[in-house]
Amino acid sequence: MSKHADKQTKCAEHGIWTSVPTPPPAGQQSLDFSAIDSDENQRIISSGKMSFAMVGCSGDPDTQTNTEAVARAITADNETSFFFHLGDIIYLEKGSDATTDGSEAGDTPVLWNTQFYAPYMNYPKRIVSIPGNHDGKVLADNQLP
After folding, report:
1. pTM for this one?
2. What percent of the chain has pLDDT over 90?
3. Buried/exposed code over 80-99 (b: 16+ C-beta within 10 A; e: otherwise)
4. Distance between CA atoms of residues 85 and 82, nearest Å
5. In Å, how far from its chain's centre is CA 35?
6. Quick count: other Cβ atoms within 10 Å of Cβ 8?
7. 101: nearest Cα among 121, 38, 27, 91
8. What angle do CA 109, 110, 116 make, to 5 degrees?
9. What's the confidence (pLDDT) of residue 83?
């Protein structure tokens, strides 16, 4: 990676990568959306229409400006059935194990509160997500953060 590209990212790669999950057991059923939001599922079936917001890499340890703008836009759209987050919800401050809000690497509740829950607290529908590499790493001593 070039020095220029490195300066453009807020991504702080700390910890040890975990292995790729094994495939689900044979015969496992796919997710039934009615189990997540039965009212919205019925609306989708009745209308024949489903739309959703999809975002990834929403955390930012330096500024929440972009995250808050995206959250406002998603919240203002009353037509979405749900919000699908593609992972990387929280980030540490680049080049350290601390964040600009004073929390440490092991203090993930603060990171979740400031970088995800606060910006999306007004979203009225369900949020479905998958973990990103920042949301599922372990520390060097093989302990969860």
Report:
1. 0.66
2. 30
3. bbbbbbebbbbbbbeeeeeb
4. 10
5. 21
6. 8
7. 91
8. 85
9. 94
Measured CA to CA, the distance from residue 114 to residue 70 in angstroms comes to 15
- pLDDT band for position 84 (cuts 50, 70, 90): very high
Mean predicted confidence (pLDDT) in 15-19: 55
Q: CB-side exposure of 114: number of CA atoms within 13 Å?
A: 17
Cα 77 from Cα 52, distance rounded (Å): 10
> Residue type at 111?
L
64: left (phi over 0), alpha (psi -120 to 50) or beta: alpha
DSSP calls for the chain: --HHHHHH------SBPPPPPPPPPTTPPPP-GGGT-HHHHHHHHHHT---EEEE-----SS--HHHHHHHHHHHH-TT-SEEEE-S----PPTTSSB-TTS-BTT-HHHHHIIIIIHHHTT--S-EEE---TTTS-B-TTS---
131 Cβ neighbours under 8 A, 6+ residues apart: 87
Q: Please give the Cα distance from 92 to 110 (Å, whole number).
A: 11
What confidence score (pLDDT) does residue 61 get?
A: 73
